[in-house]
Amino acid sequence: MGDMDPSRGFVKDVKRLVIKVGTAVVTRTDGRLALGRLGALCEQIKELNSQGYEVILVSSGAVGIGRQRLRYRRLVNSSFADLQKPQVELDGKACAAVGQNSLMALYDTLFSELDISSAQLLVTDSDFRDIDFRNQLNETVEFLLSLRVIPIFNENDAVSTRKAPYEDSSGIFWDNDSLAALLALELKADLLVLLSDVEGLYSGPPSDPKSKLIHTYVKEKHQGEITFGDKSRVGRGGMTAKVKAAVNAADAGIPVVITSGYAAENILKVLQGKRIGTLFDQNAHLWEPIKEDGAHEMAVAARESSRRLQALSSQERKKILLDIADALEANEKVITIENEADVTAAQQAGYEKSLISRLALKPGKISSLAKSVRVLANMEDPIGRVLKKTQLADGLILEKTSSPLGVLLIVFESRPDALVQIASLAIRSGNGLLLKGGKEAKRSNAILHKVITEAIPDTVGGKVIGLVTTREEIPDLLKLDDVIDLVIPRGSNKLVSQIKSSTKIPVLGHADGICHVYLDKSADMDMAKQIVLDAKIDYPAACNAMETLLVHKDLVQTGALNDLINDLRMEGVILYGGPRASNLLSIPEARSFHHEYNSMACTVEIVDDVGAAIDHIHHHGSAHTDCIITEDREIAEIFLHQVDSAAVFHNASTRFCDGARFGLGAEVGISTSRIHARGPVGVEGLLTTRWILKGSGQVVDGDKGVTYVHKDIPVDS
């Protein structure tokens, strides 16, 4: 949660800000000053002052403090007989006169302790009708700020002609919230912060458990949806007044944040771009609506849409996939433009070549993806297939059927083509989907998501595939084990490890792709050359590319290895060696055998025999894909049956470990897990089972009346 929220990027340009603190923050429930909160406020202002910000404070609280003091004064000056009479409400203007003096005395004391000077400026509504007053106000404030003095504004309630009990909303401003907005505009502030006694603006009364904090206020969306609670317990308007002031300031081009004045560092967090409180901005309506959807709402929407998807006929789901394939090809030009923009930005940012390679949609890739989607569409419908049928007893038939998992969360880095594969697999398998791509592929992912979801009919809804666009939502999503059924991370070891340690939701995937090719002593070296070069250089950034070449010791003695090593070098592959290979081949020693290069580099090591090769793979590998090249079938069988990896090959490149090449149509990733799915995960890996029992009135009744036969019957009967 520490990263800057993209919608808060404006804070980088803030130099001058107006902070408004309300009566509910300044005073306690008994009317006395809240010294702890005021002290924390002054310390934050001191920190901002020292960082070079120009801070203007608008402070309420004078009437409340004055009322508490005058009540005490009336009490000590009253006789017992006076106290028996009905008490007349104290005059608010007198309260303001007494309270303002006390309030400023406290601010002066607190700021003096922090080596800060403050100044009092009391204004009335009628003052702002005078152009000379406004010019003088600007001149005075500019001079004070140049000396790092904190101007403290308040409405001069003691002499204001505004009607009691402060329900007069006429005039240029009508309370301190609107005064703060007016001053922000008049004094050309870059930001207005309104401190409240709650975290921000909620969709309903904050005390209602169903109310949600609104992070960004969109007038067109929220104006008619919000239900306000009671007015402030002590001030004039509460949240209704703050929202009105915030909307007016935002419409004038000044960003506004409403946040809690109870937290010790909220103002500092706002200026760090943290996603706290509620933001009002004139451009909020242009931002993506997804940023307003909470993590839970996104997941629930995906689940509800997936159920509508499952309710469609097989032909209707097939048509959706065919429409998506057509839409991809029809939009190839705009997809390519957005992808090229991502690649250019990644190059300028200095990203690694392996990441840029995975990021780029090379010529022909869109057509290839569309073809994969059509292959999926034409496959047998995987949903509701009867996998096993059993007669439990006379007239009691049990069916084991295939069923969607529910809602999948896929977190992937770099590869925008993964979005297409995963989305099409989710639709084919009837699952809801939430996607989180890397920021380096932001534009590519956005256009691909738009193209795909626009091809989904309204009867299902585009929310069946949600695109998570901010970093902050990932930790929230990982907590939603009640609505997300499986997480599939596709990316670095660090990404996978972080996700596994941050969630209770089952995680399917692999952290590393450390794939081995073992050259046995009986290997056909012409074949070996073709396989090794393909496994390394066909697509070095892929998780199924060879990272370690293991060589039988006899091949070193015969010199058969030298030609292969030279071929690798001629292709530009950088070689590192294990302890034995680095000496024999005069190459730098690898820092670790457990290393995924994802580039034109690999490790070479010499082993004694197939047993040593298997031990090396088990000790240093990642259980992804491993290959043996040999003409000895007996040795090959030992390798194929003893290597405990998701995919084990004989005389074939590791690059074949791929969902499309396996005929799965597409893949969500390659799993090295041992539960549920292993290897390339296609449609079947995204399904679970459901038991369907068909009876004719049977009851258990202690099993007295049931004769079990447990007879397997043909699934098509």
Write up what this structure looks like.
This protein folds into 3 domains: 6-287, Acetylglutamate kinase-like (Carbamate kinase, 3-Layer(aba) Sandwich); 295-386 and 400-501, Aldehyde Dehydrogenase, Chain A, domain 1; 515-667, Aldehyde Dehydrogenase, Chain A, domain 2 (3-Layer(aba) Sandwich), CATH 3.40.309. It is built from 25 helices and 24 strands. Helix 7 (176-186) runs parallel beside helix 9 and helix 20 (525-537) packs parallel to helix 22 (560-570). It is elongated and about 110 Å long.
- Radius of gyration, in angstroms, nearest whole number: 35 Å
CATH fold-level label of the largest domain: Carbamate kinase
Helix/strand structural class:
alpha/beta
Describe the biggest sheet?
A: 8 strands, mixed
CATH homologous superfamily title of the largest domain: Acetylglutamate kinase-like
Quaternary state of the chains: single chain
Distance between the termini: 56 Å
What characteristic shape results from the CA principal axes?
A: elongated
Overall pLDDT level: 87
Strand order of the largest sheet: 3-4-2-1-5-7-8-6
Give me the number of helical elements.
Answer: 25
Under the CATH scheme, the architecture of the largest domain is 3-Layer(aba) Sandwich
Q: Under the CATH scheme, which class of the largest domain?
A: Alpha Beta
Residues in helix, %: 25-40%
Low-confidence stretches: 164-169, 230-237, 288-292
By DSSP, the count of extended strands is: 24
* Range of strand content: 15-25%
Number of domains: 3
Protein name: Delta-1-pyrroline-5-carboxylate synthase
Domain Aspartate/glutamate/uridylate kinase: 15-260
Organism: Herrania umbratica
Function: P5CS plays a key role in proline biosynthesis, leading to osmoregulation in plants.
